[in-house]
């Protein structure tokens, strides 16, 4: 009896062993998943950093899921500048790199046709430190308006620019930090015309920043706020007078008037009939 039980246990063990070998063999015999080499960051990289072999590595990436714009060789990205922050293990993509030949630092992340301009702020003007790199702000100016006839110059606050990108606060351009920072300067990305307007505005008045929603790009046109409005006075904005259209009336050419020569007439009565004869 004992021998029979031992034989059954040995047979079951052999069967399980064969089953395990078969399963392992079937897994090994499956074709390998196609992969491709992808260059990734081996450390956290800040905006404006220069790429080198010490901060890069190559990993195998499933071919079908590799994002567009990847690189397979470290030489392809050697010396390139990143224009956005990257985290460890993130793939290096072409749209996250500045053009070839760009120098490092903030200048590499300025968009084509734009300029970087720094304006002084305080803890209030800087939106209590919440205007961080990557945010968008509106810019207001408070200045004295030209005095009217018989009156004094009055203060006015007006929005001069909308949806302006903050490139850096103080000397920091990283966009990963979400904690407010009290700084004394903010660097903005502006077009040449906008830079001229801001330079004029900060010389004739005081600038303020207004933080806006990241995805709100709707322009808003305002007439500005004046002193009288704060105290309930009704401010009338006079529109420029509209000139009445000039009507051009064409006169028809006058016909020449033919002067009739003066004539002498005589009434002749003949047989009860009257007739006027002129000569």
Outline the fold blueprint.
Elements: H1 2-29, E1 35-41, E2 56-62, E3 115-120, E4 136-145, E5 154-169, E6 185-190, H2 192-204, E7 205-212, E8 225-226, H3 227-230, E9 265-270, E10 273-278
Antiparallel strand pairs: 1-2, 3-6, 4-5, 4-7, 5-6, 5-8, 9-10
Features:
6-stranded antiparallel sheet, 16% helix, 279 residues, elongated
Summarize the structure.
With 279 residues, the protein is α+β, with helices and mostly antiparallel strands.
Molecular structure report:
- The protein is of the alpha+beta class.
- Among the domains are: 73 residues, Type Iii Antifreeze Protein Isoform Hplc 12 (Alpha-Beta Complex); 115 residues, no CATH class.
- Helices cover 16% and strands 27% of the residues.
- It has 3 helices and 10 strands.
- Strands 3, 4, 5, 6, 7 and 8 form a 6-stranded antiparallel β-sheet that branches.
- The chain is elongated, with a radius of gyration of 44 Å.
- The protein starts with a helix and ends with a strand.
